[in-house]
Amino acid sequence: METDRKSIGNSSNEKVHESKESHSAVGHSGLESHDWDPEFEKKTIRQVDWRMLPLLGVLYAISLIDRTNTGIARTAGMELDLRLDIGERYSIALCMYFVPYILFQLPSNLLLRKLGVRNWITFLVVAWGAAELGMGFVTNWQGLTACRALLGLFEAGYFPAMVFVITTWYKRHETQSRLSIFYVSSLFITAFSPILAFGLTQMHGLGGQAGWRWIFIIEGIMTIIGGIFAFLFLPDFPDKNKFLTEEQTRMVLQRIEKDRGDATPDEITKEKVLKHSADWTSWAYGLMFMSSTMPAYAITYFITTLLFGMGFNVRDSLLLSAPPFIWSAIWGLAMGFASDRFKSRGFFVLLNATTVMLGLLITCYAPSNAARYAGLFIANGGATGGITGTLAFSANNVCSHSKRAVSTAIIIAFGGIGGIFGTTVYRQQDFPHYRPGLWATIACQIMTILLTFTLMFVYRQRNKKADETGEVLEGTPGFRYIL
């Protein structure tokens, strides 16, 4: 809907405080109107891409590996050593991760600007690395559960913080491709996690430790090293960055101001947090995000178990776990660039929800193992596209840093709920097909489809009313929702 938006970046900082109705909310000193050289703009944004996205992707890959490698360790001997085969101990250990993960999302995002991106993220990465390292030395399932809870506590702040930061750097029709690069690059790296884990299990007996323990020990050390790199190279918000020149920073801020009018961060207050938390659209996006993360978590945690149930041995189950994640990275990246190219969000969310349903039905009912395995490719790809699509859909329809911080935290917290569902509805007694869990996941995709149609209808009506009456949307003159 970029053609519907009026220019809002053509006045000085003083005019911002005079009237929001001026349709020229620059909001930051030095953001006067300027026709930037396209090559200069392109070069600067490419510099931002390379400085930010690879490092964020690697750190998130580490996060995903650390939270999901329990499935691999389970098949490598942890289940018997810690007696996780009794009752629902394994599911309890998995679920305990998500309790602090859900609760700490919003507080973490509210601290981000106050403490600084580099300082806060470095602390989180090193802390969850220590929790991961500790999992290599637990002697019972209670210790594993406690370490999982600490892991969830410290990992909670990373993903919403990175989505928050990324969406402040780019124009709205540039966000999904960047979120996809950030997210799917981490998935591509994560795809090789089973292979790495298999190699680490070959250290069995070294130092008197079981092979599965070395998975947690080595990957915990790698995480702590990643935290050091975060401190050295992680960028901050656009207005606080130190790696661009003053002219480049001014250009980045001006193009954001023209796009949606929130280049200047507003103060985060208790009143604003309560107001933004009451916006029903954030909760709708949260349910949609939950529906996307549910199959993603389920496949990640149970793919080796599913393959083992198809008759593959432990080694082959680990090795065959990688290809579906490589495919999901390719699919997610394609969806991100297509969504930005066609300037459409809702359609691609609908497409990916449908793709997840198709893949799950094939996995659930196909007669051959080859077809069931192919279904995992399809479902995993749709889940990845749905995750980045929902995040972009929501981020594109928010103005102000305070609302972005709150809405991002709410939405991603629902991802933790999706993780709980993904680890509990796939019950041990339903092995090896897990049909009740697969149908529960399909039901969530249907909910996503209904919510997406609802949001698209509401946004279309609001845009129409604003065009006819001049009503200001999201407190920003000229702003229009993206469908």
Outline the structure in words.
There is one protein chain. With 483 residues, this protein is mainly alpha-helical. It has one domain: MFS general substrate transporter like domains (Growth Hormone, Chain: A). Helices cover 73% and strands 0% of the residues. The chain has 21 helices and no strands. It has helices at residues 13-18, 38-68, 70-81, 89-96, 98-103, 105-115, 117-135, 141-155, 158-169, 175-190, 193-201, 211-233, 246-260, 270-277, 280-309, 314-319, 322-341, 346-365, 369-395, 401-424, 435-469. The longest helix is centred in the last third of the chain and has 35 residues, at 435-469. The protein starts with 12 loop residues before the first helix and ends in a 14-residue tail after the last helix.
* Total helical elements: 21
Give the CA-CA distance, first to last residue: 8 Å
Provide the CATH superfamily: MFS general substrate transporter like domains
Following the backbone from N to C, one meets helices and strands in this order, namely HHHHHHHHHHHHHHHHHHHHH
Number of strands: 0
Decide which structural class fits the backbone: mainly alpha
> What fold name stands as the CATH topology?
Growth Hormone, Chain: A
**In CATH, what is the class?**
Mainly Alpha
General form: globular
Unreliably modeled segments: 1-30
Q: In CATH terms, what is the architecture?
A: Up-down Bundle
Number of structural domains: 1
Radius of gyration of CA atoms, rounded to a whole number: 23 Å
Task: Classify the helix fraction into a percent range.
Answer: over 70%
Query: Would you tell me the overall average pLDDT?
Result: 89
Please summarize the sheet with the most strands. none
What share of the residues does DSSP label as strand, in percent? under 5%
